[in-house]
Amino acid sequence: LAASNAVPRRLGGSDWIDPQIINGTLVDIKDVPYQLSLEHLFMHTCGASIVSDKWAVTAAHCVVGMPALLMRVRAGSTWTFIFNWMGSTSGVSKALAHPKYDSSKYDHDVGVLEFKSALKFGPTIQPIALPAEGEALAQGATGIVSGWGTLFEGSLFTAFKLRKLEIPLWTEAECASLYKEPLVPLTDRMVCGGDHHGDSCQGDSGGPLVSGGKLVGVVSWGEGCNRAEKPGVYTRVASQPIRSFIKEQTGQ
């Protein structure tokens, strides 16, 4: 896996701010049945996570500037490619970004999607639980990130088959020590995960970071993909402004 190509940002020098799976393993959708592909004009552009039969959580930068009319979600499919007939699809009736989303800093990078038709749950389609507001990650926790993102930094092609990767999750202090001079400020609405052994990358943006059976993060950004001492940065779902926005919009 490596971050989403929805909104790649070049903020300075040769460093890309990339919502980011590299070195992941191939996986069947039954192992991550909450995973969605968000398609724009029938092409996969971002990931998303099912939280109910009518709603999903994704990244704000995956929906800003894109009319819901041009979006659809694909559930229950291990594969993603143009004219994919696998799984089930639904149009999107609402695509809402957090009102405080800052595209220059990737802060409050969360959005929600309302489906035109309710999903039918089964072995390949299931919702993921959400953490309580303010719920902390356990010390030394790891997380599972999944998606169809590119397999190396700079690739123009996303993966056809779903991958997942288990990554270490870092405390705020550990993340700050790794990102001594981040291209955008780190905030308490973000959580860092991954290392040079594996990372998310373009095409994974908006997808799930799951720990303890709960959606703890949303793939957001990173300085490149899979770089030493530059972990991926995820929107922290349990932070007050993120969790309250999701609950207000989806009821979950």
Describe this structure in words.
One of its GO terms (biological process) is proteolysis. Residues 21-251 form the Peptidase S1 domain. Keywords: Disulfide bond, Hydrolase, Protease, Serine protease. This is Trypsin-7. This protein is mostly beta strands. 7% of the residues lie in helices and 33% in strands. The protein has two domains: 29-127 and 242-250, Trypsin-like serine proteases (Thrombin, subunit H); 142-239, Trypsin-like serine proteases (Thrombin, subunit H, Beta Barrel), CATH 2.40.10. The protein has helices at 172-178, 240-250, and strands spanning 9-12, 15-17, 25-26, 35-40, 43-50, 55-58, 71-75, 88-97, 111-115, 142-147, 163-170, 190-193, 208-211, 214-221, 232-236. The strands form three sheets. The protein has a six-stranded antiparallel barrel. A six-stranded antiparallel barrel has the order 4-5-6-9-8-7. The longest helix is centred in the C-terminal third of the chain and has 11 residues, at 240-250. The chain is globular and about 45 Å long.
